[in-house]
Amino acid sequence: MENPSMLERRSLGIAAATAALFAPRVLRAQGVTEITVHYAQPFIFKESYDAIAAEFARREPNIRINWVTTPNYEEGMQLILRQAATGQMPDLSYQGFNRLRLFAERGIAQDLLPLLRAEGDPTAMGYSPNILALGHFGGMQAGLAYAASNPITYFNADLVRRAGGNPDAMPTDWAGTLALAARIKALGGGIEGMFYTWPGDDWMFSALLFGHGGRMLSEDERDIAFAGPEGLAALRLLDRMVKEGGMPNLTREAAQQAFAAGRLGMFFWTTAALRGTIQQVGRNFELRTTVMPVIDPVRGRLPTGGAAGMLTARDPAKREAAWKFLRFSTSAEGTTLMVRNTGYVPTNQLAIDDPRWLAEFYQQNPLFQAATRQANIMIPWYAFPGANSVRVTQTMVDNQARIVEQRATPEQALADMASEVRRLLPRPRG
Predict the structure, then answer these.
(1) Do domains 8-149+304-378 and 151-302+381-424 have the same CATH topology?
(2) Strands 378-380 and 302-311
(3) Taking CA atoms, which of 74, 286, 312, 327 is between 20 and 30 Å from 114?
């Protein structure tokens, strides 16, 4: 697995092999437009972007892509903010859904709806209202969804059987899941029962909060809403994972390695990591996936993770070229290539509805079906307003750490989290 420690720069000349034979003539006649495209998490996305770029080259041999990558969404956001100040931004950037709001509010992202409408009816091109909503912030279409994800359950079917469980009938609630985790841990020999991925950002906390029917802020966004009973229930559940399920205090990377090595029974994380997990596990054990345990069967929802392409090019030629790549990457064909090379949920309705795109793929790859079974309860990953969104996220992570490390009760952690986030939110006007 790729794990870059610094910005990774690589250039990919995407002229097709046949076109390359006549490159001098093409260059003289039409010229080559070079664009810079940024994306995060190459350890998840690299294969999908490479596949899309190769196919795009057959259509647009005179567009050359220079890639810039960052290890995660947060560093990707900081990169664009720094480069915006110096006028050196890439022409196209794929950002996490929860960071688009900041770029829309600062005037960095360009409104894509006029460009879409100039080509026809967005819905007819596969951009349904729900899909467009994932990238709609600040009263504008700040991005087009490239990949969407929700949290799923990865499990080691061999360990489940050894602990007396049934891989074909996994527990559907958290009480049963924690009991199974405890039995797996009791197998001994360095085996752990479960790991719920809490480090990194607020996404997996929102899965517990939304799963209880809660929300991050009030509807007018003047105050927090997560400090109510739903938020407390979410943190109490995290506490139970430690006390009842025996969840160890690991980094996400360490948990992924333990799972791939067959030493962890259940791993709760994004479907985005599915392709990489399949490759890591190999023949070590029988890998299975299923939906997340249900919290509130009526009000419960799951956050939509993933990325959207944000157009930043100002030069007309580069802007046109970057738009062409963005459109192709989010088209039915581009979405199909993305799904096949990651584990994300499709973000183009045509790829979902038309059986020629992904129907056969899902039939032949049952591990990918868990995320699509939860698509009906997916809601947008909440984007906090104001300039302190990254600090808000870190506050949530730090307080979850106190619970996992058993240094604070859920009640203490929630009170401190609420106090700090209130301080970081923009002050109400008037």
Answers:
(1) yes
(2) parallel
(3) 74
The CATH superfamily of 8-149+304-378 is Periplasmic binding protein-like II (3.40.190.10)
What is the pTM for the complete model shown? 0.82
pLDDT digits (tens, 9 = 90+) for 151-168: 999 999 999 999 999 999
Q: What is the DSSP string of 9-70?
A: EEEE----HHHHTTHHHHHHHT--EEEEEEEE-HHHHHHHHHHHHHHHHHH-TTEEEEEEEE
The label of the residue with tokens 């061999």 reads: 158
Q: Domain ranges in the chain?
A: 8-149+304-378, 151-302+381-424
Inter-axis angle of helices 229-243 and 174-185, nearest 10 = 20
Reply yes or no on whether the pLDDT at 12 is more than 50.
no
Residue-averaged pLDDT of the chain: 90
Q: Which fold has domain 151-302+381-424?
A: D-Maltodextrin-Binding Protein; domain 2 (3.40.190)
Is the pLDDT at 276 greater than 60, yes or no? yes
What is the reported pLDDT for 85? 92
